[in-house]
Amino acid sequence: MSRPNASPRPLRADAQRNRDHLLAVARTAFAADADEVTLERIAKDAGVGIGTLYRHFPTREALVEAVYSAELDAVVADADILLSELPPLAALREWMNRYARFTASKHGMLPALRAGWASGRITTPATRERITGAVGAILASGVAEGTVRADIEADDVVAMLLGVFLSTGGADDPAQTVRLLDLLVAGVATRTPR
Question: Smallest Cα–Cα separation from 23: which of 68, 61, 55, 77?
Fold first, then answer.
């Protein structure tokens, strides 16, 4: 008999390695040509049977969602890592580069992601909150240091980031994306008297 509210058992070490490897192979495959990627191909490229893939990801959408979630986790975690290594404005600009790569790599996954968003399996507000939290942490550090304007809202920066990525196509015009991200960082920086 199962216990109510019991957390799922952790995967065995070999099962976790298989899952992680499947995610890595799927990430590469979806980035290359998402429309042509089959679950059978992912299983073959990962060196596992299709049954192993289906045990971890019962549908294509479940696999896409898992890849998206794992990559989003990494992008969000990068904010704290960058803040520990760089001054806030430099951390913000580098984080924007990483977020730009994240969004650009999702173009091939958009149909499956849209289906996940439409069904509610991937929640856009939760994604937006996580991204806004990462930006907010960097901005707060910059405000404390005196290099970021105190009147800047993290949600406004995220809205502008999304505008940059939508207007430039992310990977379609990388030079324009770089210029716009530089302008965005300049816009949040405190003004130094001349």
Answer: 68
Sequence-distant contacts of 25-32: CB under 8 A, at least 24 apart: 26/63, 26/64, 26/66, 26/67, 27/67, 27/70, 27/71, 30/64, 30/67, 30/105, 30/108, 30/109, 31/105, 31/108, 32/108
SS3 148: strand
The Cα–Cα gap between 55 and 171 comes to: 34
Domains of the chain: 11-58 (1.10.10.60), 64-188 (1.10.357.10)
**pLDDT tens string 101-151:** 888 777 666 666 777 767 776 666 677 889 999 999 999 999 999 999 999
Secondary structure of residue 115 in the 3-state scheme: helix
Residues in the chain: 194
Is the separation of the CB atoms in 91 and 85 below 8 Å? yes
pTM given for the model: 0.76
Query: DSSP letters of 150-177?
Result: TT--HHHHHHHHHHHHHHHTTTT-HHHH
pLDDT (0 to 100) of residue 9: 66
Determine the pLDDT at residue 8: 62
DSSP class of residue 8?
P
Tokens of 176: 């324009």
170: three-class secondary structure by DSSP: coil
Q: Residue 92 corresponds to which amino acid?
A: L
Is the pLDDT score of 88 beyond 70?
yes
